[in-house]
Every structure is written in C-alpha cells, then in structure tokens.
Write a structure and sequence with these properties.
Elements (H helix, E strand, L loop, with lengths): L5 H5 L8 E2 L17 E6 L3 H16 L3 E2 L8 E6 L4 H20 L5 E6 L5 H10 L5 E3 L7 H11 L3 E3 L7 E2 L11 E5 L1 E2 L10 H5 L3 E2 L2 H13 L4 E5 L16 H10 L4 E5 L8 H9 L6 E3 L7 H7 L5 H14 L4 E8 L6 H14 L3 E6 L17 H24 L5 E9 L7 E5 L4 E5 L8 E9 L4 E5 L2
Parallel strand pairs: 1-8, 2-3, 2-4, 4-5, 5-6, 6-7, 9-12, 12-13, 14-15, 15-16, 19-21
Antiparallel strand pairs: 10-11, 17-18, 17-20, 18-19, 20-21
Helix pairs in contact: 8-9, 12-13
Bound molecules: S-adenosyl-L-homocysteine, iron/sulfur cluster (SF4) and FE3-S4 cluster.
C-alpha cells in the first residue's frame, strides 16, 4: 500500500524529470485478463482529467476489457475524480454508495476503483480506507501506467490495491489512448503546475510542471492529421509557460508555430495564465489562420488586493493591459475567463472591482465559482468572514452580468456566416447537428448526418445566451 502524502506533494526539487518511453508495460498474460468482462469509467474533472480517462480506457482495452455504456452492467467501475472544489467530493462519494448497493445486490465481484485528483489527496484516501471498505483500487495521476499490474493483483490475488505516488512526477510517453472523438483530440503538452495559487489544489495533485519534449507533441499531432483529425487542443494548466522547464530554448511560441505548420485545420490551447502571455505569442496566434481566435484567460478577481492574496502575480491593471493588447491584435477573437467570488478577505469593494473588470472586458463567457477551501492550501487557512449567503448573492450578481455580455457577444453573430466543425447530433434535437465555431461558440444546425466531422459554413439565424442556431450556407 502506498498512500498519498501531502507533505511530499508540496515538495519541488531540482531533480531532473525523466522522459520514460517504455514504462507502460503490459505482459502477454495480462492481455486476456479482461476477456468477456466490461468496464465503465466516469470522468469528473477538467480536460486533462478527460484525457486521462481516454488513456485509462485504452489500457483497459489492452487488457481485453470492453466498454459498457452503463455502470450497472460493468465488471470494473473507475471513478476518475476531480478535487478542485468541495462539491466534487460529495458527488463521488454518492457514486461510491451506489456502487456499494450494486455490489450487494447485483454482482459482488464488481471492482470499484477511484483515481484522478481526489485519489492524490491524503485526507480522501484516509476516508476511503476508514469508511468505504468496498473500494478495491485507488491509484493517482502519476501512475496510470501501472493499472494493468494493479488490476491483475486484484483479480488474481483478491488483494485491495492502494498505490498513489506523491512525487513530483516524470513524463511517461508510451501510454495508449482511446479518443472519445474522431475529429477533435486533446494533446497534453505539459503536466503539473508550479504556480501554487493560494486557493488551488492542482500543484499538489498533479505534481511539478513537466513539459513534454516538442518532438513527441509534434509527432502526436502529425499522426492525428494523418488519421483525419480536424482539431487539436493543446492541454496544460499553464500552457504559456510551456518549455520553461526544458532548458532547450524552445517555448510556447515555437510549439504553437510548429503545431500550426503540421497543417491540422484547427489548433486550440488551454489554459493561458496571464502572467506568461508574451507579445510574440500574440503575434504567432495572429499569424496562423489555423490557430483559433479563442483565448481562455482566467481573471479570478478584479481586485489587485485579492489577486495578491491569491498569489496570481498580476494586478488588475496588468490583466486589463494584456486583455486590450489581445483584443487589438485579434479583434475577431473571443476571450473567456474564470472568476472566483468570496475569496477570504473579499469585501464588497473588491467584488465591485471584479464587476468593473467584467464591464470593461465584456467576456464572451465566464466560468464563475464560489471559493472552496481545499485542504493543504494556504487560502484554506486564511481568515474568511464573508457569509455563504453573501457569497451566493455575489455569485448571482456576477452571473447576471456575465450572461448579459455572453448574449451581447453572440448577438454580433446574427446573420453572419461562420465556420463550424460539426461534431455530432445535437443533444436537444435529433434533427439537428452541433459543433463549434473557430471562436468556440456552440452552434446547432439542421444538416444531413454526413456533415459530421466536417468544417462547414453556417449562417446564424438565431442567437441565445449559450448557443446559436444556424442553417447551412451553400
Ligand atoms: N490552471 C488554470 C486553472 C485550472 S482550475 C489557471 O490557472 O487559470 C479551473 C478554475 O477553477 C480556476 O481558474 C479557478 O477559477 C477555479 N478554482 C480553482 N481552485 C478553486 C477553489 N479552491 N475554489 C473555487 N474555485 C477554484
Ligand atoms: Fe491552480 Fe494556479 Fe496552477 Fe492554475 S496556475 S492550476 S489556478 S495553481
Ligand atoms: Fe480537477 Fe485535477 Fe483537473 S483537480 S480540474 S481534475 S487537474
């Protein structure tokens, strides 16, 4: 048993990050282990967590398991969790309870595993060990490649497996992937985070910032182009800091340029930390038509006092300067953001400054959250005297303003012809297909099914706050 340790997860050393190209090993005798058995993976977190699930699914299929569309029939159930806010915790343990009932009533041999960022939390693993004895497997974000070994121990020896590394992490390059989409793909460009924003748990759950070597990334994108993919999203907690840890004089500007040159039709990237956004990067985005004019630029707060307490390392003014520079260089672009309300010490004046920035930037959309104290983070120990009621009220005021600007941003598309990558059938209406514009606007369009996977011209006929309707422009 290897439990996570918060103390170890905090550590950052100068130890060299190793690029491991053969650490994922699957012995022949493990390839039959899942024969005639099924798996179900539930994903709770961000794009990186989604992409980890794509890796986990591929590993399970390497072992002979097949995917089950519902949890009730599955032999292996894995919950790939997120730790960013407290509410995720409750959802996951609700599910753990449901699986307990399944084990008691339907199939006692179900293997229940918990992985992802919650599995990296010492307090969570202690809770699992104390209260949820029917959990058979816990593994973390650094040891996904160990899944075949761990599962074989459970299946062959009926031993519970708890294995979570709390080290800074290496880069494992040979993990297989089963992608959810045939048209758009997630591509990790870096792992971990060293920014240690005071509210955030990610540096503890994902380890040290480790950029992948450029050739591995470029080759992955080239393979995707060859396989007919239309879009890649380069993933990292701070993509603008890509390469800084590599000492090879190669950074995000270089990478974006090289990825654009592969000829893939659409390149996206998330998330950009304002601190590392350089002028040359803006030039590169403007220069290549296949780099999408869409930037997610988390603000977190409009008050420089709160930003300082958050450890974000930019002021309100610096954020606004960057925002205006981006809008000037990329006038057609859409810019979205993340905002936290109710951070410890946030006064009504601080909150009003956030509203002011929203009024100035008129974001295309924003993800808004109430501050959630996370165990082990500095902010969880800060004095917080704003009531939850007040925080809820602030969130509502903020959302109202954010929605107003989302609708206004969408209104500008009415009657225009836009390019949409059609991804599939619309959730709301079987007769419609759905996809996203270059600026990441959701569009529903009446079009024949053959258009799935193609980038088509759509004329926007109706506009709502979170989506638009359109018709084929032929
Ligand atoms: N790396 C990204 C953020 C990833 S987490 C960045 O630096 O911008 C996604 C969002 O969750 C954050 O932008 C933040 O707005 C929110 N978030 C993170 N920790 C939080 C917490 N403890 N409470 C509430 N929201 C949080
Ligand atoms: Fe968390 Fe800050 Fe790192 Fe983003 S940059 S993942 S908010 S610590
Ligand atoms: Fe959640 Fe971990 Fe992503 S905490 S947001 S799944 S990096």
């Amino acid at each position: 048993m290897l439990k996570p340790s918060l103390k170890d997860a905090r550590v950052r050393t100068r130890k060299e990050v190793l690029v491991k190209t053969n650490d994922y090993i699957i012995d022949n005798n493990l390839k039959e282990l899942g024969k005639n058995k099924t798996y179900y993976v539930k994903t709770y977190g961000c794009q990186m967590n989604e992409h980890d699930s794509e890796n986990i699914k591929a590993i399970l299929e390497d072992m002979g398991f097949t995917e089950s569309i519902n949890m009730e029939n599955a032999d292996v159930i894995l919950l790939n969790t997120c730790a960013i806010r407290e509410n995720a915790h409750n959802k996951v343990f609700g599910m753990v309870g449901r699986v307990k009932t399944l084990k008691e009533t339907v199939n006692p041999n179900i293997i229940l595993g918990i992985c992802g960022c919650m599995a990296q939390e010492e307090v969570v693993v202690d809770e699992i060990l104390n209260k949820y004895r029917h959990v058979d497997l816990v593994f973390g974000t650094h040891n996904i490649h160990r899944l075949p070994k761990l599962l074989s121990e459970i299946i062959n020896k009926h031993n519970k497996q708890i294995e979570v590394y709390s080290i800074e992490g290496d880069v494992i390059e040979n993990i297989p992937v089963k992608r959810d989409s045939k048209y758009k793909a997630w591509v990790n460009i870096m792992f971990g985070c060293d920014k240690f924003c005071t509210y955030c748990i990610v540096p503890y759950t994902r380890g040290k910032q480790r950029s992948r070597m450029p050739e591995f990334i470029i080759n992955e994108v080239k393979d995707l182009v060859r396989d007919g993919y239309k879009e890649v999203t380069l993933l990292g907690q701070n993509v603008n800091a890509y390469g800084k840890d590599l000492n090879i004089n190669y950074n995000m500007e270089n990478l974006l340029e090289d990825v654009a040159k592969t000829g893939i039709e659409r390149v996206r990237f998330v998330t950009s930390h304002p601190w590392d956004f350089t002028d040359t990067m803006i030039e590169v985005i403007a220069k290549y038509p296949n780099i999408m004019p869409y930037i997610h630029l988390p603000l977190q707060s409009g008050s420089s006092k709160i930003l300082k307490l958050m450890g974000r390392r930019y002021t309100k003014e610096e954020y606004l300067t960057l925002f205006n520079k981006l809008k000037k260089a990329l006038p057609y672009s859409s810019i979205t953001t993340d905002i936290i309300v109710g951070f410890p010490g946030e006064t009504e004046e601080d909150f009003n400054e956030t509203l002011e920035v929203v009024n100035e930037c008129k974001f295309d959309s924003a993800f808004t959250f109430i501050f959630s104290p996370r165990v082990g983070t500095p902010a969880s120990r800060m004095q917080d005297d704003v009531s939850l009621e007040e925080k809820n009220e602030r969130l509502q005021r903020l959302n109202k303003l954010v929605n107003k600007y989302s609708k206004e941003a969408n209104d500008r598309y009415l009657g225009k012809v836009v390019k949409v990558l059609i991804e599939g059938v619309s959730e709301k209406d079987d007769n419609h297909l759905m996809g996203y514009t270059d600026t990441m606007k959701l569009v529903n369009v009446k079009a024949p099914i053959e258009y799935i996977g193609k980038i088509i011209d759509v004329k926007i006929t109706d506009v709502k706050t979170w989506s638009m309707d359109g018709e084929l422009n032929e």
